[in-house]
Amino acid sequence: MRTNQLQMAESLWILSLDMVEDRRLNNSKISNNPAIYIGPQTIQNANGTLDDGFQFQRQRQKHKRNLSGTTPIAKKPNMDNPPTIELKNKYNGLKNQIDRLTNPNIPPVVMKRTENYKLVLNRIIDVQKIKCRAKPTGEFFYMYCESEKDHRSLTEYLDTESLEYYVIASQAEKPTKVVIHGLDVDSSCDDIREELTRKNYRVDKVHQFKKFRTKKLIPVFQVHLLPTENLKEIYKIDTLLHMIVTIEPYQRKSIGQCFHCQAFSHVASKCKMIVKCVICAEQHDSRVCPPKNIENPTKKCANCGGPHTASYRGCPKFPKKKKQRSKKRILLCSSS
Question: Domain locations in the chain?
């Protein structure tokens, strides 16, 4: 009997020691949190206020995840009395303005400035009722028409009044120019035309290049091609007239010059200006110029009046081709 009592007392003693050890371990874990002060004697109120000014950290409320797949409906604002916001657009004044070109596919008509140009413009727009607008540029007026009918009426009126003008050809009207390398220097331009025509190309013109100073023929040919379905296939041709050739797109190195009036940026077929000679600046064709066959003819520029031909590239009126700006190199240095 006594032995059983001793065993029960020993068990209770061990149990009490375990409870004390568990309480000590729990107190040490909680006391590691610097935001919470643990001590039963410091709690004064049930709302978590301590006597030394500390407060217990309240546990955040956990939001349950929406697993139903439905989107919660947002609350709509009260639109019974919506606020009035005044909107201002600073570009409203541009609404009634017309673009510079109503139809960019219609090429402009370039009319030469005259002394009574104001009267001419009034007759074109007010009397003839031709819908166009003029933009002065140097000694010319660029006339932009709103339709093809107005463009045709304007050119007919200028022809009737014998006024000088020229038309800048549109991209659709311009032929595609290619250069053929590899043919013999004695190759005929007619043979090249016939060969390309058999290959279903529309050839407008074939021209053989010459050296600039000696005027000697060189084995390089320029071909003007009109639009066709197989136009892009021209660069794949590697044999022509039984010779190995290379066909490349023509790249002009300078601004084009009219052979009719010696002005620039247009062609003779679209020019209605007064004819001028490239050698002596007189009003006749350059091909029938009398001083042409003379050893040292008297030269006069049709553009600046200087003692040189109108095709002289050193002429102050000769336009310079703008060079493309090269992109500056940007050196990326590693930060130290």
Answer: 102-167, 176-249, 255-315
